[in-house]
Every structure is written in structure tokens, then in C-alpha cells.
Amino acid sequence: MNSFAEIIATIKKYDRIIILRHQNPDPDALGSQAGLATTLRQAFPDKKVLIGGNDTEGLKWLSTAEEVTDADYQGALVIVTDTANQPRIDDQRFDDGDFLIKIDHHPNDDAYGDQLFVNTDASSCSEIIADLIDSSDELQLTKEVAYYLYAGIVGDTGRFLYPSTTQHTMEVGGKFIALGVDTAAINNKMNEITLQQAKLQGVLFDNLQIDASGAAYAVIDLDLMKKLGINQEQANSVVSTPGRLKEVCTWMEAVQKDDGTFRMHLRSQGPVINGLAKNHDGGGHPLASGATAKDRAEVEQMFEELKELVTEYNQKGE
Ligand code: AMP
Questions:
Q1: Would you say 91 and 53 are in contact if contact means Cβ atoms under 8 Å apart?
Q2: For the whole model, what pTM was predicted?
Q3: Which SUPFAM superfamilies match (predicted)?
């Protein structure tokens, strides 16, 4: 583990810096990436700072990536934000630079990088970037930087609702408000869904299998998405919805990919689910993880494992 001072000393040494984050980026991936890029550009205008990766259609309003060539990687510093493991980095040339830094808030299962800073107590990677800026005399938390970081924190805390939200998270959020960031506009944008996505919520409640233990799951397959006219990325907007039900404490959503496999989204309000995710080619936070199921049989197998896990948790009376 390295200190912020060591990371900033490294940043100062490089003229070209490429900032990456994970595939299928969420607001925290994009917010931490763009927030860091913006503060570095503002502090060091002579450095070339590039934002890499593929765009997510529904989040282009927040940040879009730039073209990064093979030549750009030569001799560059590469910084990866919000990405626990190397296979999920959205640009597998990440190791082609001269030096690699990991900055993240997920469990540090894959401690990659020449330098790394991981804080699993942080609500989001965006909160860590705010702390990095605060630790330095040279980096500034400007209104533009705060815009990206606010979106990232809102995304990963469910608008300051999840247990990962700490006093410090609120203090950092307060600094953003003091800078005049239009928080209501960001919240509205992040809350926005299409009519088709709203219809999906209804179908989801109809299809949700709820076990007496409080474990639940729903499958959103290709046929359903086609019928509703939504894509996989839009289907992700309903992942947190079952958590509002009194009957549900831990749940999974299986969203089918074009190749027939399922991207699994796991969420919990108590039982720790990242071990289960790890057993199915995934990982993540104790209460919010992702995994992959090759077919429906594996989805159902995962639900059996989820039910066991929740039942055990209930028996312990935690
Ligand atoms: P998601 O359900 O895709 O919103 O992901 C929930 C959390 O789990 C996020 O913090 C992701 O970064 C993490 N995550 C999702 N998929 C994976 C994976 N395959 N491996 C490791 N972490 C993952």
C-alpha cells in the first residue's frame, strides 16, 4: 500500500498519464476517472492526460472516453480507478505503459500495480479521489472536478443511502455543495428512466421469486428485453429495485447477454455475498457484487447457494 504523497510524486514524474477504469462503467468508475483526469489537467496543464475505455451509452452525459493509441502507452503512467481485478480493466493494454497505479475501494483480491492505494472503508472510488486531492497542495477540488466526484459518490451510495455512507462521505459531499455543484440536476439525471425501463420494473416484480428466507431472484432474458425494447445496459437500472420490498433482504438479478450467458447482479442488506460471486467468476463488495452464470442451470444453482447463505445468516440471528 502506498501513500497519497508517493502517488502524487509518481504523477509529477510523468508527462503522459492514461486513466482507465472498469468495463461496463458505472457513475463511480466514470466519476473517479474523469474527476482525477480533470484535477490533473488543471494542476499540470503541460501534461497530456487521457481518459481511456469504451463509452456507456446511458452515461455519456457524465463522461466520454478519448482515443488512446499504442504509442500513447509508450513511457506513460497508467492509473486505474475503481477496478478490483486486472481482467475487468477496460483496456487490456493497461500494462503497456511504464508504470501502473491502482486506486480502488473494492477488496484488494488482485493487488496489481507498481503502486496501489486501496481503501475498502471509502464509499466509492470518487471519495478516495476527493481525499487524494485534499491531501495535496497542488491538486485543487474545483467545481468541475466536484461535479464528476459527486456523481460517482451518488452512484455508489444509492444517493447517500447505503451503509457504506459514512460521516466522511457526507463531509466530502458537503464540500461539493459548497462549491456550487448543481446536485439536484445530477440527482435528477441519475434517477431518470425511460417508460420502457419503468415497465421492466413491473415485470420484474411479477417475475421475482421470493424465498421465505428473504432471498430473491429474477431473470431478465433476451426475449423479455426484446419485447420491452430495452438493452442490457438499460436493464441494469432495476438492479436495486427488489431491495425496497419488505419481504426481500438479499437478491440477484440475472441479465442475459447476447451470447446466452447471464450477467449476475447480487445485492444484500445483511448477508455477505461477495464470496458467492467469487465462486461464479465474479467479485465485488460484501453487499454489492457481480458474477457470471453460463446458463439458467447455473443461475438456479446460485439461487440455491444464496438461499443457504441467507438461511445461515438468519439462524445466527445477525
Ligand atoms: P454490478 O452488479 O455490475 O453493479 O456490480 C456490483 C459491484 O461488483 C461493483 O462494485 C462491481 O465493480 C463489482 N463487480 C461486478 N462484476 C464483477 C466481477 N466480474 N468481478 C469483480 N467484481 C465485480
A1: yes
A2: 0.94
A3: DHH phosphoesterases
